[in-house]
Amino acid sequence: KAGVTQTPRYLIKTRGQQVTLSCSPISGHRSVSWYQQTPGQGLQFLFEYFSETQRNKGNFPGRFSGRQFSNSRSEMNVSTLELGDSALYLCASSGTGVATNTGELFFGEGSRLTVL
Amino acid sequence: GQQVMQIPQYQHVQEGEDFTTYCNSSTTLSNIQWYKQRPGGHPVFLIQLVKSGEVKKQKRLTFQFGEAKKNSSLHITATQTTDVGTYFCASPPLNRDDKIIFGKGTRLHILP
């Protein structure tokens, strides 16, 4: 069974630009959640999508958005990039979803974003 | 809001020594999960504890969930170099309005 695939793995952007990251979950998983990981703040929940609907959202500004397609693949977008957005962005898929309080999360390798 | 405090932040141990990381919450947790992230890697699920006072073992790893379901620990016996990484606890939400909370992790470094 293929794991969670995230693209791109690395990217460099400049302030003010926007970025789109992609996540393909494990086949059959309908939940995709996104996380920002930084050395100072650790792993922070961004949002979760289940069957194309956003189920929950973390405490991030509106510049962070996402969506999920009918094949469960998900994208997240960050607009008007700031230096502080430099981080490892991880997505995780789950059969039941974060919001259902059960089940493990399967993480992708992450997309490392550097904002200059 | 719900918070999960994880200590210590860093731990250096000699190979063969034991290691323990702790997660503490001010509120009752529905369950707790543990993940391991190797340097340069991504978090990998280790275990989920659900019941009050639950203890689970995976080879040299022992996981405990407190009686009050407010704390949890991960203990590694006789550490090996393969244990290097950051160990996170995670508290899944109690209801659909809550969010999953991760502890900040304990980074384990093994001295040969």
Description:
The complex is a heterodimer of chains A (116) and B (112). By secondary structure, chain A is mainly β. Helix content of chain A is 0%, strand content 52%. Chain A has strands at 5-7, 10-13, 19-24, 31-38, 42-50, 53-57, 64-68, 74-78, 87-94, 106-107, 111-115. In chain A, strands 2, 4, 5, 6, 9, 10 and 11 form a seven-stranded mixed β-sheet that branches. In chain A, a hairpin with a 2-residue loop joins strand 5 (42-50) and strand 6 (53-57). With 112 residues, chain B is mainly beta. In chain B, the strands form two sheets. In chain B, strands 2, 4, 5, 9, 10 and 11 form a six-stranded mixed β-sheet that branches. A five-stranded antiparallel β-sheet of chain B has the order 1-3-8-7-6, with no helix packed on it. In chain B, a hairpin with a 2-residue loop joins strand 6 and strand 7 (61-65). Chains A and B meet through strand 5 and strand 10 of A and strand 5 and strand 10 of B.
Strand content of chain B: over 45%
**Class of secondary structure makeup of chain A:** mainly beta
If helices are DSSP runs of H or I spanning 4 or more residues, what is the number of helices of chain A?
0
Coarse morphology of chain A: globular
Proportion of residues in helical segments of chain B? under 10%
Number of strands of chain A: 11
Distance between the termini of chain B: 41 Å
Strand segment count of chain B: 11
Rg of chain A, nearest Å: 13 Å
